[in-house]
């Protein structure tokens, strides 16, 4: 009898400890999520549509069609209202730390913004440990698809229009929305094109918000190698000029319809920015457009703007407002300093 009672007590004690341990771990994890919400702000002050996880699972047919993958999660194609409206659903996978940070940052960065050259955030799911963001669907893919994968160069006029649309979106982030936003990851893969061939900036998961009257901030490296301004590696304060540098790389890539780094070319052409600078200094810009029908004066002006944007000293880079004026031909473009890298 004593042995039976002892065995029962032992089993009950084990079950109690297991349940208690589980609740403690859940409480600790939930406390971490709550602390993240307190640190980055809740979503209550952002007017967006709230979806349940089941809503979005149904909308994406069980997260069936993948549109793209990133460091924090995967984007799926979906449809709302009986297939009447296509959407892109971003499902964050590293929820507790990086995913929660990205979720809150993206909500705060673009939840209140409204500009024709920014991808619109429609809604979100913040249910338990599920974090999902719902965006308008961009049917014509990314700028990377448009300029890197085409059999021949897309029309010059279309590429210049896209450059200006991206520039206007960045100008809105830097000067017109509140709080001001440093995107931190401007690259062709984050520039999407809608059904009307309008370019829109997407993916604000790495964005940095500036407080009123703040022009610079210290933060760890974020973004994509090949598009990062030198100050990211030099432990210097980061300003909107970091986006200007990234835009300059995108501008030159769009100009030449090739990536900044290509290995299957001549040795002196591997790094696009160096090759463009060399051709400009030598008066050999014809090598860059390779027989394409372009307006040569305009082409030279765009090259000069790009070289200004990628100056190693951030103080030498123009503001996005001046970049737009120079691209449009409404402001004179001075000869950029040499070397520009």
From TrEMBL:
The chain crosses the membrane at residues 6-24. The keyword ATP-binding applies. GO terms for molecular function: ATP binding; carbohydrate binding; protein serine/threonine kinase activity. It is a single-pass type I membrane protein. Its main location: membrane. InterPro entries: G-type_lectin_kinases/EP1-like, Kinase-like_dom_sf, Prot_kinase_dom, Protein_kinase_ATP_BS, Ser/Thr_kinase_AS. Keywords: ATP-binding, Disulfide bond, EGF-like domain, Glycoprotein, Kinase, Lectin, Membrane, Nucleotide-binding, Receptor, Serine/threonine-protein kinase, Signal, Transferase, Transmembrane, Transmembrane helix. It catalyses: L-seryl-[protein] + ATP = O-phospho-L-seryl-[protein] + ADP + H(+); L-threonyl-[protein] + ATP = O-phospho-L-threonyl-[protein] + ADP + H(+). ATP binds at residue 90. PANTHER family: G-TYPE LECTIN S-RECEPTOR-LIKE SERINE/THREONINE-PROTEIN KINASE SD2-5 (PTHR47976), RECEPTOR-LIKE SERINE_THREONINE-PROTEIN KINASE (PTHR47976:SF27). This is non-specific serine/threonine protein kinase. It comes from Cinnamomum micranthum f. kanehirae.
